[in-house]
Structures are given as structure tokens and as C-alpha cells.
From TrEMBL, chain A:
SUPFAM superfamilies: ACT-like
EC supergroup of this enzyme: transferase
Catalytic activity, reaction form: 2 pyruvate + H(+) = (2S)-2-acetolactate + CO2
GO biological process assignments: isoleucine biosynthetic process; L-valine biosynthetic process
Record family assignment: Belongs to the acetolactate synthase small subunit family.
UniProt keyword annotations, A-Z: Amino-acid biosynthesis, Branched-chain amino acid biosynthesis, Transferase
Gene label: ilvH
Protein name: Acetolactate synthase small subunit
Domain called ACT: residue spans: 4-78
TrEMBL record, chain B:
GO MF terms held by the record: acetolactate synthase activity; flavin adenine dinucleotide binding; magnesium ion binding; thiamine pyrophosphate binding
Cofactor detail note: Binds 1 thiamine pyrophosphate per subunit.
InterPro entries referenced in this protein's UniProt entry, alphabetically: Acetolactate_synth_lsu (IPR012846), AHAS_TPP (IPR039368), DHS-like_NAD/FAD-binding_dom (IPR029035), THDP-binding (IPR029061), Thiamin_PyroP_enz_cen_dom (IPR012000), Thiamin_PyroP_enz_TPP-bd_dom (IPR012001), TPP_enz (IPR045229), TPP_enzyme_TPP-bd (IPR011766)
Gene from which this protein is expressed: ilvI
Keywords: Amino-acid biosynthesis, Branched-chain amino acid biosynthesis, FAD, Flavoprotein, Magnesium, Metal-binding, Thiamine pyrophosphate, Transferase
Annotated ranges, domain Thiamine pyrophosphate enzyme N-terminal TPP-binding: 4-118
GO biological process: isoleucine biosynthetic process; L-valine biosynthetic process
Domain called Thiamine pyrophosphate enzyme central: residue spans: 195-329
Entry annotated with the keyword Signal: no
Cofactors demanded by this protein: thiamine diphosphate; Mg(2+)
SUPFAM superfamilies documented for this protein: DHS-like NAD/FAD-binding domain, Thiamin diphosphate-binding fold (THDP-binding)
Protein name: Acetolactate synthase
Length: 163, 576
């Protein structure tokens, strides 16, 4: 099953490679991994999307907790949560195709953030499945480049992940 | 007090009460070596290879419970230490390893003797640090010792660029009195409800078994374990790492378990209905085939590391905590309850174990005209009254030592169980001897293992650490040969050492006493003679039967009850 694990870790050099190294050394899957500093500059927040049986996910959270740089973590998938991913898509947009691509972007509540006579860059945000659907809606031959941020997430309600 | 970075390093060690530091100098640590030269409190032991430094510090740590400290230079000095660091990591041994690094401005430029040792050691340390600022040095040392020695112990590497130890840059020094890390708070006390549930289950057991590991040694819990085991009259087995956690000569001890465990220990594991696992990690060499591990048992597991619980074997009652206080809580609960396990059931269980025991699975041919390695260990055990510190290398001799040297006390058996590092024994023995100069220290090894760190014979002479080396020389990498015999139809691919040195001359060349023993009748006299030479390192080269195998054996992927026994051992069908 797919899990989204949010981790607060010390904002120190090497902390990211400790986590990444743990996943590769123990053979755990990483679907995506995002990291950035938090409001508190001594902490980073990392979101890892992974998959595995319940036993594997239990080991992943235990092994992450064992890392000295990991301060706290939560498996978002165990509670109500919101997940988002940002995607930027560069598409060929010429003549009649320009309108069609713009309509599609509107349907997916995407924004066109760069325009040239032959291309658009469209920004779309949402759950992974929505971004996948948007890509499917576009014609393959129109796709020039796709860049995705990887998933980040947050718990619903007042509860949060703090130190 | 104003100190340079190099002086701070040495002062931190003094403030931690460090007695010995094992090391080898080189460019990036010369400032530190200069600071070491100007003092006498921290004694430096010069090894002949950095791997030896880590193993010697490791032996010191295992035999004392105190952290072992290592100092090596950057690049090759640090990479040579990696095997020893990984060895300590696998067995949860507290080490603080100081590595020199190239100066800050040239880090990342492929400078001379530069290696990213923080990156290289990341998967085999409990934690590591690169200290870029002299103001962070003292705090880092405090954290390193704290992390290495608390919770589930382990090695910590401190990488220090040369310019951080510049003798011309001095800052005020104060060693932090305490340390707290928001991200690291190892739990000590076990959860009372879990402990209560565990005690209930233990008291209701009909075929109980206690399986204890290295955690009991590391957690100084041998007394509590012994008290609990005797209070309940349960049978107990130890893992390779846990030997000495319960007196091996006691009636309730059924021997080591696992791949080369005794018949009675493995059969009892297979048939038990309640298993109490104490500071053990269900290693594959212990469990055999996971799907058939203790098939009828409810399992209780006490461990300080939550990640060890239900890692390979799903347990019913997990208890996270330091083993000693958890066991003490259990003893207290049982005593106040006034209850005892079902005496009839226990009696029947002990009778069954007695039947398994009667097979005498460690029997070997005593009439052979070749020296049997088991006989050497038995004689050694007798002559040292089971009271020596024994460091072993890795292979057949290690298993025979574990089977035939009956350890009654913790911390006397020192071996590389997890990583299985050949070359560990001799340097480890030197570290032990430094810590326990009045005690008998033996290195049990083989002709293959000993050659992996043989250069430390020079260290043994320089620091007058008279260890006794028992070399069980069968001319083969014995365990490799055994597997090739059993699994590869006796195709002995590259496991025969054709050009062995003359170990007697070699020992003498290093300034020690060398002895060669090739007749069974000479084994005991040779050991006696060697043990009498109190102030000399003695290398005893025993030429042993090259065909001897370690039995019993649970081959990889087999279950506990599917043991291969020594030829000629008759298993009564009723018994199995």
C-alpha cells in the first residue's frame, strides 16, 4: 500500500543523505521525496511517498525514527490528510491546438505561466492521480517536457506535526 | 582555559575519562598527535594497521562496557578503519572514532588523502559528525560519547578537518556538563502493562524457553537474567553474542542455539509454547527458516531498539526498554504475585529436554590420533577454569570456542558475531589485555583468520600485552571448506591455504614465543607451558584434523529441528 510519511529532521548537512541512504541500503521503495526548511530554520520537513506491506512500513518508520537527525514523523496515510503535487508541463501549442490546450488547462484548473508562439508552460497542482489524468488528456506528441515536485502533504484539522 | 582544536580533542578525551586511544598517525591528525605527545593521561596505543585499531578499541569496549576510542588519519587511514567500524556497528559496540580530514578549504577538491568518510561510514555508524568549526568541537565530543554509549550502543565517527585543529588558533574551552538531543531519547523503562502481560504469559507457559542475546551483555543484565531464569526454572539458551549472559555450566543452560546450536537448544526452540526473547534480534543464523521458527510459540521480546522488534519474526508482546530494568520489573511482579508456573508441565518439559540432551550432540572422536580442535578448546577451558577472556576470529574455531568453552560470566567472550570479521581476534585480545592486565586473555583463531591482522603481533610486543594465541591450524578456511563439502560436493574451491608461513618462526620474528603442537598428547602440556609464561605472548600452532566439521548444523533455509548431526549420532525417531 502507498504511504505518505512526513518527517521533521535537523536541518543539517547530510541529513537528507541519511534518509536516502537508509531507503537504498534496506531496499525500501521511494516513489517521491521532497524536502525544504520549515518556519524554524533548524528543522527541515521531508515528505516521503513509499509503498510496502504493513510490516515494511512499520520497519520504515522505526528505522527513520532511529536516525539521530530525525526529530519526529507521522504517517499521513493513517489519518485524514491532504496531499498535493505541483507539475509544470511544457506543451507544443500552435495554431488551432493552442485553444484546445488552454481549454484542457482550464478544466484541470491549471495556469498557463509561460507563452511563446509555439509553446505553453502549464502549472497544475493536485493529487498525483489528477496530475496523471492531466498528462493523459494531453496528446503525447504535444508534450515537450514534464517536471513534477513530488508529493507533499499535511494532516486535516487542528492536529499537526510539530516539535 | 584557552586551547587549540588539537588540545580540545585531547582534553575532551580526558574529560570523558578515556584511558586508552588506539590509533595510527598521518598528515591530517598530526596536530592532534602533537597534543597527545604533551600529556600522559590518555595513553596512545600504536597499532600496525587502522583495522587493528578499531578491533582493539572494540575488544576494550566489549570487555569493559566502556567506549573504545580510535584516532586515524584521513583517506586511507579512515577507510582502513571502516571494517572495524562496521564490525562494531553490527554488534552494537560503543566506539568513538576520530578521523582526520583534509583542511576545510580543500574538501571536495580530491585533495591528497581525501575521502568522504562521513559519507562512506554513514550506513555503518550509529551517527557521524563532520566538525567544521572549532567552537563545535567540545559539544560534538559530548554528543558522540552520549550517542555511542546510550540506548542501543554503536560506533560514532567524528571527522575533523586539519585546520580545525590548528595549534595557532585557541579558544576558551569548557566541556559541556550535560547533553540533550531533541531527536534522541532512548527509552529505559519498559511499559508496565506490557510487562504485566508478559509475566502472565510466562506463568501460564507449559513448555517455556528463554532465548537471550548480546543485549543482555551490553545492558549489564546478566544478574537479572540469571535471577529470573532460576526463579521460574525455565530452560535458557544464549545466542553467539549472548554467551556468558547466563552461566553455561548451570543445569538450566541448554547451550547455544541456531546454525551451530546444540540439539537440545534448537529442539526446545522448535517445540516451546512461550518464548521470552531478551536482547536478541532474531538474526538469520539464529532463526533458520523464518516460516518454521518456534511454530507453536507465543513470543515476548524485550529490546532497547524498537526497530529490532518484529523485524524478522512477528512477536506477540513487544517490550521496548533497557533489558536490566525490564527484567527487574518482571522478577518483582512474579515474586509479589506468589504464583509459579505449572510444576507438572515444567517437569514433563525438562524430561523431554533431558532426552534431547542425552543425545550428547557435541560428542566427538576422542581416540583419534590427530588433534581434534574441540579437544584443544576443552583443555583450554579446564586449564583456565573457564575464567579467561576469550577473543575469537571467525570460522569453525569460533563456533568450537562458543560450543566448548563454557562461559559463566558476561563480557568474557568477545567475537565478531554480526559482521563475521576475520582478523578481529588478535587486535581485540590486545585491547582486552590492556583493560584487564591481570586476567588471562586468549585469542582463539585459525590459520586463515590470524593472517588478516597478523601485523598486530608487533603491537602486542610494544605494549607488553601477553596474550595467548591458540591457532587451530587445519590448513583450510575451515568453515568455507565445510560448506563446500556439504553443499558443493567437496569441490574445495580456493579454500586451501597452500603456502602457510611457519608460524613458530613468525612469532619468534615478532619477538614472541612460538610453539607447534601436532600430537593430541602434547595439547595439554603445551597449553600449560604457554599459560605459565605470564609475561610473554605465546603463539600455539595446533595442527588439527583438517576433516573435522562443526556439528550440529542447521543449514541456511532449514528449520531448527532439521539439524545435521555429527556422523554416527543416532537420533531415536521418538526423540525427534
Amino acid at each position: 500500500m502507498r504511504h505518505i510519511i512526513s518527517v521533521l529532521l535537523e536541518n543539517e548537512s547530510g541529513a537528507l543523505s541519511r534518509v536516502a541512504g537508509l531507503f537504498s541500503a534496506r531496499g525500501y521503495n521511494i516513489e517521491s521525496l521532497t524536502v525544504a526548511p520549515t518556519q524554524d530554520p533548524t528543522l527541515s520537513r521531508m515528505t516521503i511517498v513509499t509503498s510496502g506491506s504493513d510490516e515494511i512500513i512499520e520497519q520504515i518508520t522505526k528505522q527513520l525514527n532511529k536516525l539521530i537527525d530525525v526529530v519526529k514523523l507521522v504517517d499521513l496515510s493513517e489519518s485524514a490528510h491532504i496531499e498535493r503535487e505541483l507539475m509544470m508541463v511544457k506543451v507544443r501549442a500552435t495554431n488551432g491546438g493552442r485553444e484546445e490546450v488552454k481549454r484542457l488547462a482550464d478544466i484541470f484548473r491549471g495556469n498557463i505561466i509561460d507563452v511563446t508562439p509555439t509553446s505553453y508552460v502549464i502549472e497544475v497542482t493536485g493529487e498525483k492521480s489528477k496530475l496523471d489524468a492531466f498528462l493523459q488528456a494531453l496528446r503525447d506528441e504535444d508534450l515537450i517536457e514534464v517536471v513534477r515536485s513530488g508529493t507533499t502533504g499535511i494532516l486535516r484539522g487542528e492536529r499537526g506535526l510539530h516539535v | 582555559m584557552e586551547l587549540s582544536g588539537a588540545e580540545i580533542v585531547v582534553q575532551c578525551l580526558k574529560d570523558e575519562g578515556v584511558e586508552y586511544i588506539f590509533g595510527y598517525p598521518g598528515g591530517a591528525v598530526l596536530h592532534i598527535y602533537d597534543a597527545l605527545f604533551k600529556q600522559d593521561d590518555v595513553k596512545h596505543i600504536l597499532v600496525r594497521h587502522e583495522q587493528g585499531a578499531t578491533h582493539a578499541a572494540d575488544g576494550y569496549a566489549r570487555s569493559t562496557g566502556k567506549p573504545g576510542v580510535v584516532l586515524v588519519t584521513s583517506g586511507p587511514g579512515a577507510t582502513n578503519a571502516v571494517t572495524g567500524i562496521a564490525t562494531a556497528y553490527m554488534d552494537s559496540i560503543p566506539l568513538v572514532v576520530i578521523t582526520g580530514q583534509v583542511p576545510l578549504p580543500v574538501i571536495g577538491s580530491d585533495a591528497f588523502q581525501e575521502a568522504d568518510i562521513v559519507g562512506i561510514t554513514r550506513p555503518c555508524v550509529k551517527h557521524n559528525f563532520l566538525v567544521k568549526d572549532i567552537h563545535k568541537l567540545a559539544e560534538t565530543f559530548k554528543k558522540a560519547f552520549y550517542i555511542a554509549t546510550t540506548g542501543r550502543p554503536g560506533p560514532v565517527v567524528i571527522d575533523i578537518p586539519k585546520d580545525v585543529t590548528d595549534p595557532n588558533v585557541k579558544i576558551p574551552y569548557e566541556y559541556p556538563r550535560s547533553v540533550s538531543l531533541r531527536s534522541y531519547n532512548p527509552s529505559v523503562k519498559g511499559h508496565p502493562i506490557q510487562i504485566k502481560k508478559a509475566v502472565e504469559l510466562m506463568l501460564s507457559a507449559r513448555r517455556p524457553m528463554i532465548y537471550s542475546g548480546g543485549g543482555v551483555i551490553l545492558g549489564n543484565a546478566a544478574d537479572e537474567l540469571t535471577t529470573l531464569t532460576r526463579l521460574l526454572d525455565f530452560p535458557i539458551t544464549n545466542t553467539l553474542m549472548g554467551l556468558g549472559g547466563y552461566p553455561a555450566t548451570d543445569r538450566q543452560f541448554v547451550g547455544m542455539l541456531g546454525m551451530h546450536g546444540t540439539y537440545e537448544a534448537n529442539m526446545a526452540m522448535h517445540d516451546c509454547d512461550v518464548l521470552l526473547a531478551v536482547g536478541a534480534r532474531f538474526d538469520d543464523r539464529v532463526t533458520g527458516k523464518i516460516a518454521e521458527f518456534c511454530p507453536g510459540a507465543k513470543i515476548i521480546h524485550i529490546d532497547v531498539d524498537p526497530a529490532s522488534i518484529s523485524k524478522t519474526v512477528k512477536v506477540d508482546i513487544p517490550i521496548v526498554g533497557d533489558v536490566a530494568p525490564v527484567l527487574a520489573d518482571m522478577i518483582e511482579l512474579i515474586k509479589t504475585s506468589g504464583r509459579t508456573p505449572d510444576a507438572e508441565a515444567l517437569k514433563a518439559w525438562w524430561a523431554r529436554i533431558g532426552q534431547w540432551r542425552s543425545l550428547d550432540c557435541l560428542r566427538y572422536d576422542r581416540s583419534s590420533d590427530r588433534i581434534k580442535p574441540q579437544f584443544v578448546i576443552e583443555q583450554l577451558w579446564e586449564l583456565t577454569r573457564g575464567d579467561a577472556f576469550v577473543a575469537s576470529d571467525v570460522g569453525q574455531h569460533q563456533m568450537w570456542a562458543a560450543q566448548y568453552y563454557k562461559f559463566d560470566k558476561p563480557r568474557r567472550w568477545v567475537n565478531s558475531g554480526g559482521l563475521g570479521t576475520m582478523g578481529f581476534g588478535l587486535p581485540a585480545a590486545i585491547g582486552i589485555k590492556l583493560a584487564h592486565p591481570q586476567e588471562e586473555v586468549i585469542c582463539i583463531t585459525g590459520e586463515a583468520s590470524i593472517q588478516m591482522c597478523i601485523q598486530e603481533l608487533a603491537t602486542a610486543l610494544q605494549y607488553r600485552t601477553p596474550v595467548k594465541i591458540v591457532n587451530l591450524n587445519n590448513g583450510y578456511m575451515g568453515m568455507v571448506r565445510q560448506w563446500q563439502e556439504f553443499i558443493y560436493e567437496s569441490r574445495y574451491s580456493h579454500s586451501y591455504l597452500e603456502t602457510l608461513p611457519d608460524f613458530v618462526k613468525l612469532a619468534e620474528a615478532y619477538g614472541h614465543v612460538g610453539m607447534r603442537i601436532d600430537r593430541p598428547a602434547d595439547v595439554r602440556p603445551a597449553l600449560e607451558e604457554a599459560l605459565k609464561l605470564k609475561d610473554r605472548t605465546v603463539f600455539m600452532d595446533f595442527l588439527t584434523d583438517p576433516t573435522e566439521n562443526v556439528y550440529p548444523m542447521v543449514e541456511s533455509g532449514k528449520a531448527h529441528h532439521e539439524m545435521r548431526l555429527a556422523p554416527g549420532t543416532a537420533v531415536d525417531r521418538e526423540l525427534a
